[in-house]
Specification:
This protein has 331 residues and is an alpha+beta fold. The protein has eleven helices and 14 strands. The strands form two sheets. Strands 1, 2, 3, 4, 5, 6 and 7 form a seven-stranded mixed beta sheet that branches. Strands 9-11-8-12-10-13-14 form a seven-stranded mixed beta sheet, sandwiched between helices.
Length: 331
């Protein structure tokens, strides 16, 4: 369970895309969040699909928000979603729960469900949902993961591991309690599910001329940074002490032996921003009551170097395996 290796994608997926059409401005590429397709002289269609595989609860809510995140980091406002829902048995209560969450999340973001598919598959052990999201923006406005430049500052919103914290608090509640987490802390962390959207901050930053925006999902903050470095062909130098981590996330990861920088981090946004626009960007986010921090900078080279709290440097030169995904394998 988890993302396929970069080398496998480059060998078996990226070269096999059928007829390459001229209106496709950004197609399948490593680290890029969504396709960008020209629809007229002024506008582009932004399209993305994403499954939810590392959670058992709140599947509908997560599916809508995470797919729409990848539209928003392109600088486009999400408009339409299409869920594919696969159920392990023909149970109305499961479908009711999932579609209730899809409906709530879609209304919160102002998007509409315009199609999709539902199916019963007896070999499944639990429900699986994959979501396609779409939006429209102007050609002069769209943003890619590959737009980073040496000298850019790395801006991060909110805290690391938001999605993982919410999943741990719901799906691993009993395990966390047995290992010493208080029930009040677990219940508080369950509210992190409401923080997984980055649509608001992405649309704010899109108006300010950022070079890159990226939604760090599997592999967490470090995985997201590595994907940006590869897509932009730059080296990212990051200071661990500058990366904000919520207390709930620290405690859960410590109890379960997880690295908070290597777990699902939807809810945080990573952006590469020209140095002269950092102050304005952070001020606009503050006005929207969204916390942010500068965690490093881009320079010539390729890959990512993390300066740890003890001063040691860790070079990240390959995709990060998500440690929450690995935890699912162990139970």
């Amino acid at each position: 369970m988890g993302k396929l290796p970069k080398e496998m994608l480059e060998k078996y997926v990226f070269p096999r895309v059928g007829l390459r059409r001229p209106e496709v401005l950004i197609g399948p590429r490593y680290g890029e969040d969504a396709a960008i397709i020209s629809i007229n002289d002024e506008k582009v269609l932004v399209v993305h699909s994403d499954p939810i595989t590392a959670a058992c609860e709140h599947l509908g809510w997560l599916a809508v928000n995470i797919a729409c995140n990848d539209i928003a980091v392109r600088g486009a406002e999400p408009r339409w979603v299409l869920p594919v829902i696969l159920l392990p048995e023909s149970r109305q209560d499961l479908l009711d729960e999932i579609m209730g969450e899809v409906d709530s999340a879609a209304k919160a973001l102002g998007v509409m469900v315009v199609g999709g598919h539902t199916e019963y598959i007896s070999m499944l052990k639990r429900p699986v949902i994959s979501m396609t999201a779409m939006g429209v923006t102007y050609k002069k406005r769209y943003i890619t993961t590959g737009g980073g430049k040496p000298g850019d500052s790395i801006l991060m919103t909110k805290t690391a591991g938001i999605e993982a914290t919410a999943i741990l608090a719901r799906d691993f509640e009993e395990l966390l309690f047995k290992k010493g987490a208080s029930m009040s802390l677990i219940k508080k962390a369950q509210s992190f599910i409401s923080k997984v959207s980055v649509v608001r901050e992405a649309l704010i930053l899109a108006d300010l001329g950022v070079h890159v925006m990226h939604d760090p999902t599997s592999g967490g903050i470090l995985g997201g940074l590595y994907e940006i470095a590869c897509a932009s062909n730059v080296e990212l130098r990051v200071m661990e002490e500058k990366i904000p981590i919520a207390d709930e996330t620290k405690i859960f990861c410590n109890l379960l032996g997880l690295n908070p920088l290597k777990v699902l981090s939807s809810g945080s946004l990573l952006a590469l921003i020209p140095e002269d626009k950092v102050e304005e960007s952070m001020e606009q986010l503050r006005k929207a009551h969204i916390d942010s921090a500068v965690i490093g900078y881009a320079c010539n080279g390729c890959g990512c170097i993390l300066t740890k709290r003890d001063g040691a440097a860790e070079r990240i030169d390959k995709p990060i395996e998500d440690e929450l995904v690995n935890l699912w394998r162990e139970i």
